[in-house]
Amino acid sequence: xxxxxxxxxxxxxxxxxxxxxxxxxxxxxxxxxxxxxxxxxxxxxxxxxxxxxxxxxxxxxxxxxxxxxxxxxxxxxxxxxxxxxxxxxxxxxxxxxxxxxxxxxxxxxxxxxxxxxxxxxxxxxxxxx
Length: 129
Description:
4-stranded antiparallel beta sheet, mainly beta, 8 strands, 53% strand
């Protein structure tokens, strides 16, 4: 059966958003799944990664204040917003071993496959006809 990666096992659920949702890539590898979120102008202090009830949730909040004073002029601008991205994790993820790293505006989350999933994997050699 040919279906898109995570079409059933990892559906995207948009929950709340007051600014554009971040781009998220999901890749399945031999021993793990990788979720990568591009979060420009955010850092690890403004983001949160949670796992609960077999769901991976990424939250973030952005605040930006600009202020300029010149002689008899005053300029002030404030922007803020938050996002939540939530995913149903595949059944074979070992939730106890999930890791996240944040570097240069990119959040990378590794979701290792459990030992049972790796044990059931088998390579089948194709024979010449």
